[in-house]
């Protein structure tokens, strides 16, 4: 079983080890004068007595400090706590010094007689040191409390972000799944080879959605491979009515973004706009001069929309970026065009900052 000493600031033992050697030399040289350094016997015995006595006093003061901190823990009680601590420490210091002086006087080896002026000077010096140490220990204690609260706040914020990100994960539009199955059914009847290709691309889409479900970020290159499979399924339904142009700088492909970011923008585009061979929906993905990726498409709004909130996918995307890196998703729209520009993150660890 280990003896646990009272800890007011968490650094009490360190402070004691730093202060006690210097204190021992100063107080013993004050009491014993030059003989403290002229005899090994006097030096060693005097040092041992003062170190033990000073250590016990320091521990006792720590116990008093911890007791008062528990008794007066609130911010508005700090002056009362510090005042009582200082008064108690001064009393204990006086008792310790008086005992130390009388102990040296009682040992013949020291050949010492009680000196009142030396006692007063020592008490005054130790009193100043006690007051200084009291404020130092209080400062360390308050810093440690702030640091602990900050760490707890960071943990809570991280947990909160994680829970929010979980809630903002892109969900597969049930209409998309239904339409994909219909397309697959038609292909099975008309062209088994195309049906097999369609099924392969469909498996890529859903495998990506499942394997990246717990990821905060993926590389743009990985996301683009997913988009190829996703667009294959859409073009099986819309044909030339849906066109995708991609112009991405090679350096951008190694950067990261939340998974299904591009899918959310594409889904928003084809869900809100009419698509036909005569009036195709043209989606362009391009690097935005070092400012991320811009996804642009023409606007040809549907006259009748279903009750689903298709804009929610973009709202989720905006919120994801705010949670991940306080980054901004810019949505610009005119009568004929909408552009969604979002930043790319250099490394996955940026999402944890």
Question: What's a quick, concise take on this entry?
Answer:
With 353 residues, the chain is of the alpha+beta class. It has helices spanning 12-32, 35-38, 40-71, 78-106, 116-167, 174-190, 192-211, 220-238, 261-272, 312-325, and strands spanning 218-219, 242-247, 256-257, 281-287, 293-298, 330-333, 337-342.
Structure description:
- By secondary structure, the protein is of the alpha+beta class.
- The chain folds into two domains: 12-166, no CATH class; 169-352, Histidine kinase-like ATPase, C-terminal domain (Heat Shock Protein 90, 2-Layer Sandwich).
- It is built from ten helices and seven strands.
- The protein has helices at 12-32, 35-38, 40-71, 78-106, 116-167, 174-190, 192-211, 220-238, 261-272, 312-325; strands at 218-219, 242-247, 256-257, 281-287, 293-298, 330-333, 337-342.
- The strands form two sheets. The protein has a five-stranded mixed sheet, covered by helices on one side.
- Helix 4 (78-106) crosses helix 5 (116-167), helix 6 (174-190) packs antiparallel against helix 7 (192-211) and helix 7 packs antiparallel against helix 8.
